Amino acid sequence: MKNIQPRKQRKKLYQAPQHKRYRRFSAPLSSALKSSHNINSVPVRTGDTVRVMRGDYKGFEGKVNRVDRSKYRVFVEGVSMEKVDGSTVLIPIHPSKVTITQLNLDDKWRKEILKRKGGISEKAELTEEKPIEEAEPPKKKQRRKKKTRKTTTAKSGGE
Fold first, then answer.
1. What is the DSSP string of 72-99?
2. Which CATH architecture has domain 26-128?
C-alpha cells in the first residue's frame, strides 16, 4: 500500500473492488508445492485442499467449500461447529492462516497463471493429482551448556 495511515489502509481494504480482493486471498503453498511450482503463494480458490495453520482448528485439512470475498474469509470442509438446534455451521477462516497442500487445476486460466509466475513443468502437473505427504521436520540440535564463572568477592575500595 502506498499510504501509511492505518485509517486509509483500512478504508482501501473495506472498499476494494473484487479483482483487488482476489489478490489479497493469497495463501502460502506447502513446501512440496513450493519446490515443484517455484512459487511461494497463490490465491485460494474453491476446490483447493488446505491445512489450517492457526487457531482452534490448527492441523485440520480439507477442501475449500466457499470463498467469501466480501468478508475476506474461506470455508473449509470439516472445520465446523454444531449449533444448539443441531445444525452444523462452517467456520470462516482468513486465507493467510491456511497453507495450500493441493491445488485445484481444473481451470485452464489458473494453469496459465502458474506457468507465467513460476514456470510449471509437466512433472509438476502429474504430482498434483496425488495428495502429497510432508516429511517430519528435522530435530533440533542439543546445545552445550555454558560454563559458569566462579565469582570472587571483590573488596570495595573504601573499606
1. TEEEEEEEEEE-TTS-EEEEEE-GGGEE
2. Roll (2.30)
